[in-house]
Amino acid sequence: MIPADPRIAAAAALLRARGFGGPFALAIVAGTGLGPLADLIEAPRTLPYAEIPHFPLSGVSGHAGQLVAGTLAGRPVLLFQGRVHPYERGEAAAMRVPLGVLAALGAPPLLLTNAAGSLRDGAGPGALALITDHLNLAGMNPLIGEPSDARFVPMVDAYDPALRAGLARAAAAAGLALPAGVYAWFSGPSFETPAEIRMAGRLGADFVGMSTVPEVILARFHGLRVAALSIVTNHAAGFDGGAPDHAETKRVAAAAAADLGRLLAAWLAGPDFP
Fold this sequence. Notes:
Structural class: alpha/beta
CATH architecture: 3-Layer(aba) Sandwich
Number of strands: 9
Number of helices: 7
Shape: globular
Largest sheet: 5 strands, mixed, barrel
Helix content: 25-40%
CATH topology: Rossmann fold
């Protein structure tokens, strides 16, 4: 059993008092450059992270740092418009309170999104990709220091098979390609070297990035069902001429947000969601 966390209780109480208590059919974390997802939400209400006790504040451009509640495809959703990355604080558990709050607000399914580099032929910049598993290459874990036995989180099917199947069906219905593969987490903030990318490829990685993995671990710790999508913003370093930079990441992610919105709308509108 997870011990009570007063930080989570305080944040959840504020959200309920401000009309953000749910219930929600889906929670979404918007990755770098994916802030335009908020424009797809109908009757939106916003709440800056700075007004929520114990919520972390991001200093990365491309992350607005606010909650957006409303409806998408007729279903109530809660969008985290931006995340805090472990490299900002040297803390893998940076998103522990926000994800704990989701559990306190009814534990809706969680969709994580990120901008990623690709090691896959046929999945270049602008592609959407479904994450099936991950490699933790960052040398960190958000549950280090957790005193309870809840820290021993099983990670088989951490990326929920039923949610993944629903996203795959929705992509087909929307006429979108959705290659699936393994995501490797590097700590950042520097991009990976070509040698590191070769290593990741030999270990089985299809995509690489600087987020998501600690959030999946924390979400499973809190009992949330999780799915994750990558928006491919570049070829990984040394792969097919890849030389990534942050400006490219934001630009390509923003351009792909429309396809991501189509996918989410098809998924949420489907008869078998979630």
